[in-house]
Amino acid sequence: MVERESELVGQGERLRAAESEPGQPRLYEREAAILAARQAIDTLCREFTAGGIELGSLLLYSGRAGLGKTSMLQQVRMLAGQQGGCTVLSARAGELRTKEPFYVLRQLLLPELLKLSPEEQREVFGPWREIAGPAVGLIAPSGEDLDPQSVRIGLEYLVTQLARLRAPLVMLVDDVHWADQESFGWLESFAERCPELPVLLAIAWRTDELPAETHAFRRLVATNSHRHLEFQGLLPAPIEKMVRAAFPDTAEDAFCRQVWAVTGGNPYLTQALLAKVRERGIEPIYENVPLLHDLAAEAQGMTRELWLQKLGVNTLNLAHAAAMLGTQISPRVAARIAGMAPGAAEEAISELRRHQVLTGPADGPLEFVHPLIATSLYRSIRPGMRTAMHGKAAVELENAGRPLVESSRHLLETHGENDPQVVAKLRQAAREHLAVGAPAAAVRCLERALNEPPEDEDRAQVIYELGCSTLLTDPVSTVNQLRLALETPGLRREQRVDATFRLSEVLAHSGRLVEATEVTLAEAARTEPGPGRVRLEVAHFMWAAFQREERDGPARSARLAAFSAELTGDDINARAARVLRAWDLTLQGADATEALALLDSALEDGRLPKGLGWTSTTWGLELPAIVGLTFVYTDHLDRAEKLFEEAIRAFELAGWVGGHLGFAYFLMGLVRFRRGALAEAEEFLRGALRIARRLGPGLPLQWDAVGVLADTLLARGRTEEAWKLAADYGFAPPYHPTAMVLPDAPTLYGKLLLAQGDREAAVTALETVGAQLDERGWHNTIWAPWVGNLAQALQPRDPLRAGELAAEGLRRARTFGVESAVGTALRTAAAVADGQSALELLTLAVRELGRSPVGYEHAFALVELGAALRRAGRLAEATEQLHQGMELEVECNADGLVARAREELKASGLRPNRLRTTGKEALSQAEWQVAEMTVQGNSALEIAEQLEMPLSLINRRLAAVHRKTGTNREGLAAALGLPGEEPRKP
After folding, report:
1. Does the record carry Cytoplasm as a key word (predicted)?
2. Domain residue spans of the chain
3. Out of 71, 174, 645, 859, which residue is the most buried by the measure of CB atoms under 10 Å away?
4. For helices 2-19 and 69-83, what crossing angle results, to 10°?
5. What does the pLDDT look like over 22-50, one tens digit per residue?
6. Rounded to an integer, what distance in angstroms lies between the CA atom of residue 270 and that of residue 245?
């Protein structure tokens, strides 16, 4: 790919050298613009030399065609060259290159990138080489579809590093109104960041010709209005100077005034009109003033007949071929399009240069002297001939070794002729567009392929490819095209399965979970037995697991259990089914041991098997997320953290920095929240929320992030901020219409109400959600702790029912068998109990939570126990618990709990200790000792007996071990890297 682009680089170098030569047209009435440009360049160079970095500025030029914008950019180039030390990059969009993705960007960056050494290239690309490299033409695409948002971010990184390496940098972009969609989008984003870099960015465009959708660019111009100069027509005096320069001895005043009148002061049109006056041999006197109007019309837009009179047949044919190519014109390719021999083509090019139609070196690349000439020539081609010439141009560009992404723009302008080769080329071009992150260009190619049309047996496949091309950018179009592909005969069995799964995936990611479950179930019923059918059945169960509501939850769980039991092998579908079964058991609150055993059988040596990775196109991110969520809610937080770290790395390396990365941030925020690292959790969750806002409102990711972030703020003691966050994002009934929020949204909302002191509303909300979850068979007290929250809400007015609910919550937690669930349920039961009973429950809660990795819950229980002991007059014991709780609270950044612990300690007459660090490396020698003995299979009582220490001290050390390593007893060996034995019953 680099070899193919080297020709473009060399041609661009020669063209820019030609542009900087003397003899350029004089700029009349542009003194202020030239002065502003000179000052901007002087400031950039002076302050950069003085050590400045954030020096960037914009120069914005607009106006009608022919008013001198291009000449102004050439003037900026000349001023930068005179200054010395500047790196100048330039690009010019073309009217006929708007459908060639990244065309402008390649012109701008590739010449300079090819000058870099391999070490410098590695520096400017960083981790984004495989993402941004294909877009700029430096490396060949990998063949995998790239996320346009990722490509945009990669390009921003690339240009940022290039700007710093080659600073000070002057970037010129002409005729930006014709820029391809991909380059324009990048330019909008980069222009906003320009002030952060040592870059002067100068942009020119035609007034009223910007595409309608360029809202961000229009806002940018409005914001930088002091840098925006809109060129107007010249006054009569400069036009008179131009006329007298052309006719120094004979031009009369009346003739000069009429030239200004018929051209509107347009300098380019004035020069073209004066050229025609010379061609016709017309004297510039008063008697010939009536001729100027028609001559001006000819100069502005010549017809085919006028061009023919001016150039002759052969020369006009070559000019038309050049107009087909638009910019960066290869003389050899233009000659072949025109069907001319090399010698005749050379003569025609020489004639076009003499008539000031083309400019540039004889061996190319050639450029039109002005875009208006190219437009005039292109429009002078008869429509039928124009279409045929586009077809010829596509062929000749391909024969010349140019990539399909370049020749395909010509195929888009041809008529369908039932040509299978054209269909194949357009499909291949679409794949290449997707591989550089240009799905809009791929869509154009595939839509044109359908109009060819393709053979009957290929039509469904092309429709399917069209649906997949919009997967990351247009969910509605994707759904429509994939449905049509499935309805069209011709898809092979495996393609039908894949099309159905992709359809269900985009439906689910759009929040249409019910449709996703229905479409997979219906297609599974039509599919013959085999791996494809099993994949669809697994997908059906997967999407059902994420539905907000379900009519037959227990029945669906039973079907899933039977389905999973039937798949006894270790193929990817069987593993996926076991993952879903483990998650279903977790939501039911069944014995966690069974769920974890299923997960271990689904993984390979504790890692995701091939085919279930985060970036797998077979299954997507849902199944590995379910694995991690099961670990989260069974106290294996260390395994969940590792898994979610893998997700973040995988998405960043793949360039999936949109919803995928946002979901990974959410998952990491969730596990950090469970672990008690509240400040870190808040950071990850806010990152997820930022991405969710960028993607648009109402997506499940936004609900997920807001819910856990609000819970995190409550834990940190920022109740009002949590409530405001929920209100700002509408986190209240009816929630998302179809998708389940992670964790349970109604329970979180009831908790918010309870924190606000609105017990009546909290009771109503929690009773409603409790009935719904019980009907569904979901009794997990960590996922949805509605029972405990409802007990606390009811305690003041109905203590008997509150006690019954607390007891039910404890029963459910013990059935689940996870220490954090049991410990939290014990603490909740203590909150609705009195006296010695509450004290005993809190003692048990601290012991259970000390065996788990959930730092905040443990800290909460310690403070509650310390407070209860103080109220019972047992100050020495209270102080011990409060000190330990205080340390842990500070570690967790639980500011509200810290304040409460301080008050309790103050009431005891003591000061809090300093906190200690966390992590495996933070274990003290004494903690390592009890950790090793625990891994060897000893119980806490056995360790206490062997070390001849109090059991309470051993339990405190074990609690610190679990908290710092982020795992429970079963996961301790793996977390510490020690060989473990099965723990013995005490």
Report:
1. no
2. 2-230, 236-300, 306-469, 476-645, 646-728, 919-986
3. 859
4. 90
5. 445 567 888 889 999 999 999 998 888 88
6. 12
